[in-house]
Amino acid sequence: MILETFPVGPLACNCTLLGDDAAGEAIVVDPGDEVDRIHRRLNEHGLRLKQILITHAHIDHVGGALKLKRLTGAPIFLNQEDLPLLEMMAVQAAWLGVDTPETAKPDEPLTEGMTVGLARYPAQVIHTPGHTQGSVCLHFAPMKMVIAGDTLFAGSIGRTDLPGGNYGQIIESIHSRLLALPDETRVLPGHGPETTLARERQSNPFLQSR
Ligand SMILES: [Zn+2]
Predict the structure, then answer these.
(1) Other CB atoms within 10 A of residue 116 CB
(2) Which residues does 96 contact at the CB level (< 8 Å), separation at least 6?
(3) How far apart are CA 126 and CA 137, in angstroms?
(4) 48 near 96, Cβ under 8 Å?
(5) What is the pLDDT of residue 209?
């Protein structure tokens, strides 16, 4: 197994590359920027990209998806409820003062309960609205790992003050969906260091009030 998570772009979005070296296949989650570097890693490992999975349509997570698709031919997966945000890319770029990346409609929806990932490393899609309406987490149950996007961070949660954000909803999503997973589950957040569900359940200040 090849598992690499590295920050890309000015907002340091965690991009994750998961590969099955025996099968020669990989997925990439949240190629927000630095696509040449992501593409080079795939080539260095000799991996063919099967899926580009986007946890939500904020520019720092989705900005490089179309470029990566053009380089590899892999389809882009995104939850339909984030299409309005995808269409606001120029507005999002203006928030950051960066150039507007070219985007395209996703090739496939990323909907609650569907299975994505690789044959050896499958993931179930968990719809966790709140940071955005189309935010999803990817649960790799056999690996005891969840890629959480900007829903849950080590010691914090995703902001809810941008369009589509809803504080009550993100708290509900975390309690009812993420904290329902096994305590030992490793969490790879969309920004910052990794954590575990046990640690967040115990010490995350946003999750202590009920
Ligand atoms: Zn975000």
Answers:
(1) 19
(2) 10, 11, 59, 60
(3) 5
(4) no
(5) 73
Helix (H) or strand (E) holding 123: strand 122-127
C-alpha 76 – ligand 1 centre gap (Å) = 17
Ligand 1 centre and the CA of 24: distance in Å?
30
CA of 201 to the centre of ligand 1 (A): 21
Q: How far is the CA of 168 from the centre of ligand 1 (A)?
A: 17
Q: Give the distance (Å) from ligand 1 centre to CA of residue 192.
A: 13
Alpha-carbon gap, residue 160 to 139, rounded angstroms:
22
The tokens for 106 are 């996703």
pLDDT digits (tens, 9 = 90+) for 158-185: 999 999 999 999 999 999 999 999 999 9
Q: Which of 2, 67, 65 is nearest to 29 (CA)?
A: 65
Residues 6+ apart with CB under 8 A from 99: 93
3-class DSSP assignment, residue 111: coil
